[in-house]
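Case study 2.
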Amino acid sequence: MLVLVTGATGKVGRVLLDRLLQDRRWPELRIRALCHNRGLPGHDRVETIKGSIADRDVVDTAMAGVTHVIHMATVKEDPLSAMDVSVKGMFWLLEAFRTSPTAKQFMLIGGDCVVGHIVMPYDAPITEASPRKPYPGVYALSKVLEEVMLEQYYVQYGINGCCLRAPWIMEKDDFRYVLSFGADQFGGPNWDELLPASERAQYHAEGRVPLLIDAKGASLKRNFVHVSDLVGAMLAALDNPVAYQHLFNIAMNQPVDYGVVAQRLQQTTGMAPARIETPYHSNWLDNTKARHALGWQPHYDLERLVDEAFAYRRADDDPRKVWYVG
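Prediction:
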């Protein structure tokens, strides 16, 4: 079993490689990582190929003898390279996969940007059958194109593939910085679009926790997943015939409710809430299909996500690194 992994050096990739190498189901499993800028530590079962995924010759070399592909390489809001990676790169991967005598499964890791996460409204939980409604921007567009391209390779060529659609991925103390009003905030929302600078500075100085309010006046609910739970779903789908040509939502069992977060942090840390009106929509990424078909269960709920993020203390050799802005 030779698994080609793109995006292997990122947040998810690092955890995935460790788990793959430790999984007793595949003691002979080997990994080939296609890397562009970063490298990986040496390991006798891990091979690294350097080059651009947009280069067909590089992709063909990387795909030689591969049995399984796990495609995670992506680009955020960068119009100059997003289409090269997400469209051209995936096209070369799929072309090499469909013509390969050894290829068995193609797994795509997608994102809830294709359904607009908190930007676009839905009147029911978001299932795999819900319409795609990406928010504006090249990143969300590129992820839609990836999903559609994979589906068309099912239709045109009958390949064995699956897509795992994940929301915002958390690890370690990420969620603590999601809630920060300081310059160290991780991801969104952009406080400068919602608050005067003086108010943001005051909330930061007072150590307040944001209580986000959605467009209907209720506390905002947004979907998250812990990196370990996402990797668990990937391992559940890998080489699993049940996953054949299926899309799965991979998220916590319930979205994170910012009102419950504020209440818990006030109880556990004494942080006072700061109520912030937003134009965003509460959405629920329904993971029922993955739990039923794959036998997968997320281990993180709201309480564990919050408590571990605020209890986490970094060692000197564990600097905080933002792989992408979230």
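The chain is about 35% helix and 15% strand.
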